[in-house]
Amino acid sequence: MHTPHFMITSKLPYILLGLCFTSCAVGPDFKLPNSVVPASWSFGSKPAAATAADPAGLVRWWDRFHDSKLSSLVNQALAANLDVKIAAARLNQARAQRQVAAASFWPWLNASGGQAQSHVSGSGPAAGSFSSYKGALGAAWELDLFGGNRRYLESATASQAAAAADLDATRLSLAAEVALTYCQLRSIQDQLAVAHRNLLTQQRSSEITHERRAAGFASDLDVVNADALVANTTAEIPSLETSARRSTSAIALLLGRPPADLLAMLKAAGPVPTASAAVPTGIPSEVLRRRPDIRSAEAAAHAATANIGVATADLFPKFTLNGSLSQQSAKLSDWLSPSARVSSFGPSFNWALFQGGSIQANIRVQQALRDQSLLAYRKSVLSALQEVEDAMVAGSNEHKRSASLVEAVTANRRAVELSTQLYSAGQTDFLNVLNAQRSLLQSESELTLSNLALATDLIALYKALGGGW
User: Fold this and answer.
1) CA 128 to chain CA centroid, nearest Å
2) For residue 410, how many C-alpha atoms fall within 13 Å in the half-sphere facing its CB?
C-alpha cells in the first residue's frame, strides 16, 4: 500500500517542473490600443509614398545647419549634460531591476554554520559544559506555475525599454535646446549689429540736422526728433547685450560648464544658422515608431499590463521545491561523519487564502494604472501628430514672411538713402527721413527675428520627427 504513495511523491517534483514550463501566465497579454493615425499629413499635397523618410537624414540633424560651433556645442552637451547622465543612471537601474526579475527563475542556495557552547548547572549526570558544531546547506526553487515571475520579468523588460527611450528623449530634448539657445544668441547678436548699423545712420542724420539748423535751414524740432531717435536706438543696445550674455550662460549650463568657459568661443558674432527646408518627414506611422517619447509611453503601458499578471498570480498557490543538508556533532572531529548528517527534500506550497481583499484590490490598482498608461500613450500619439503638423505649417508660412521682409528691408534702405539725399538738398522735410529710418530699423529687426523663427521651426520639426534616435 505504501509503494504507490512513494512513487507519486517521488514524481511530484517532475510533474510540477513540467507544469512550470507548460502553463500559461495569468493576467492579460499586452496589446496596444487602436490609434487613429492618418496615412499622410494634412499639410502639403504630396502623397505619403513620395515623402518616405530617410533615417540617415535625421541622424545628427544639427550637422545639417553647417555650423561647426553648433555641432561642437551639441556634442559636448550630449557628453557632459547632467540630465543625460541622470537618465543614463536610470537606465542602468532598470537594467539591474530586470536582472533581479530574471533571478526569480533560478533556485537559491544558502549556507549556514556555527559553534555553540552550552552549560548545564547542577551536580547531576547532565551537568557540565558541552560544545556543538553545526553546518547546513539549504536550497529552494519556486516553480512559476501561474506565470507571476514571467509577468514580473516581462514588466521589468518593458520598464528597461521605457528607460532607454527616456534616455533618447532626454538627448533629443537637450540637442534641440542647445541648438535653439545657440540660434537665439546668434539672433541677438544680429539684432545688436542691426542696432549699431542703424545707430550710425541715425547719428549721421542727427549731425546733418545740427548743421542745417546752424545754417538756418532746419528747425529745432528736426534736431530734437533726430536726437530722440539716436537715444532710443542707443537705449536698446545694453538690454540686447544682457540677453546675449544670458544666452551664453544658458548654453554653458546645458554643457555643465561655467559661463566663462564659452565667452571667448561665442563672443564673436555670427549669423543665425540655416539649413535646407527639405526634411525627411516620412509618413505619420513612421514618426510614431521613431519618437522616443511614444516608444517610452508604449513600453510603460506594456509594463503596467504585465503588472496586472504579477498581482493576479498572488491569487494562486506558490509551489516550491525545497532541499537541505546539515551536519551536526558534539565534537569537531565527528562533524563530517555520516552519522551526523541530516538531509531532506520535497515540495511545499503556500497559498494566501484570505487577506481581507487586499489581493483583489491590488489587481484593481494595477488595472487602473494600465488604463492610465494607455491613455497617456494615446495622448502622446496625438501630441506627436500635432507637433509635426504645427512645425510644418509654421516653417512654410515663415518662409513666405521672410521673403516679404527681405523685400521690405531692400525698399526701406533705398527710402533712407533717397530721403537723406533730398533732405540734404532741402527738397523734403526731416519727417520723411525720420519715418524712413524708423521703418528700416523695424524691418531689419523683424527680418532678424524671422531668421530666428525659421531656425526655431526647423529645430521643432526635427525634434517632432524624433531626431536621430
Assistant:
1) 71
2) 6
- Domain layout of the chain by residue ranges: 26-105+147-316+358-464, 108-143+317-350
Distance CA 326, CA 112 (A): 9
Q: Quick count: other Cβ atoms within 10 Å of Cβ 202?
A: 26
Q: Which CATH class is domain 108-143+317-350?
A: mainly beta
The pairing of beta strand 108-120 with beta strand 341-350:
unpaired
For residue 280, pLDDT beyond 70: no
pLDDT tens-digit series, residues 255-277: 988 988 898 889 888 899 987 76
The model's pLDDT over 181-191, given as tens digits with 9 standing for 90+, comes to 999 999 999 99
Sequence-separated contacts (24+) of 441-444 with Cβ below 8 Å: 441/194, 441/195, 441/198, 441/233, 443/405, 443/408, 443/409, 443/412, 444/194, 444/197, 444/198, 444/409, 444/412
Closest to 62 in 3D by CA, of 179, 184, 174:
179
End-to-end CA distance of the chain: 69
Distances (CA, A) of 222 to 112, 201, 225: 101, 15, 5
131 φ, ψ to 5°?
A: -115, 150
Cell numbers at 260, concatenated: 566663462
The whole-angstrom separation of Cα 286 and Cα 104 is: 37
Q: How many angstroms separate the CA atoms of 202 and 199, rounded?
A: 5
Superfamily (CATH) of domain 26-105+147-316+358-464: Outer membrane efflux proteins (OEP) (1.20.1600.10)
The continuous run of DSSP H or E covering 318 comes out as strand 318-329
Decide if 146 contacts 205 (C-beta within 8 A). Answer: no
Strand 318-329 vs strand 128-143: parallel, antiparallel, or unpaired? antiparallel
Q: What is the helix (H) or strand (E) element at residue 341, kind and residue range? A: strand 341-350
Q: What does pTM read for this prediction?
A: 0.81
Q: Do domains 26-105+147-316+358-464 and 108-143+317-350 have the same CATH topology?
A: no
Gap between the Cα atoms of 395 and 408, Å rounded: 20
316, 146 contact by CB (below 8 A): yes
